[in-house]
Amino acid sequence: MQDFSLVHIGTAVRERKENFNKIVPLMLNSTYYDALEERNEHHQRKNEKMFNDFTDEEMMYYDVLLCTMMYYYVHQRKHIRKNRERKENTKTEYVRILLQFYQYAVESESFLRQDVDYYIEETIFKNLRPWHIRNYQTYLSTALLGKGGKPYSPATLDAKMTILKSFMKWLYETKYIQYPLHKEILSTSLSEQEIPNRDLYYHEVKQLLDYYKDHPINYGLLTMLAMTGLRVQEIAKASWGDVYLDSLSGHYRLRGIGKGGKKFDKLLHPSLYMSASLLLEKDAMLLQH
Hints:
The protein has 13 helices and 3 strands; from the N terminus they run ααααααααααααβββα. By secondary structure, the chain is mainly α. The protein is elongated.
């Protein structure tokens, strides 16, 4: 069995708790997943608990086991085909949300020590109780952490609690925690009125295009977004190699892979094709300077 250690991540979480953005890249590095999966399989064969053999060196670091559990949960494989696995953007969202809760728990350590009977050292989540989860949900729904210094929107709150609930359920099923904390999370489901409307209407699109008509880069990007319906990231990842001439229609088309691994194939109207050409030409000129 290969050697595996997340000591450096456990240390980083403790040392960089004031700036968790620096920890995200560490948690997104999938280099260690195969070794961790091999370690887990070793315990399954012996009917042992998950990650049962952490060394004294590993356990010296604050909650290194929990960091490993978070890492494994985010990277764990769910589908036989790799292209159906969680995408990097999804993993990033999971890591940020879980680290946000972890940070809250770390900052509550002194309170937990007084609030919990028989406090378990070198861990945090094992000391959590149902009322702590309810308190966190109340905090997250009222704290001024959203855009513009306002509370999180219902949609953002729902996304965060859905991921946290899933993780808590997984921790309980793997017997890392003894309380089914996921059952304490109140519903955050959205009503039809709370679902954000991200549609742009014709007059709004026209106003944007008119405003940027003399700016070739912004105008080209906005035209591409408006006429194809593609996402910003899908356009950002596109290249001339993804453009081809449709022999039947005589028009150029753009193909690629979009959200959820779905393929797209979009028509580029002549005017749009010219805008894209100018956009790339200007981009190349900027790179030269």
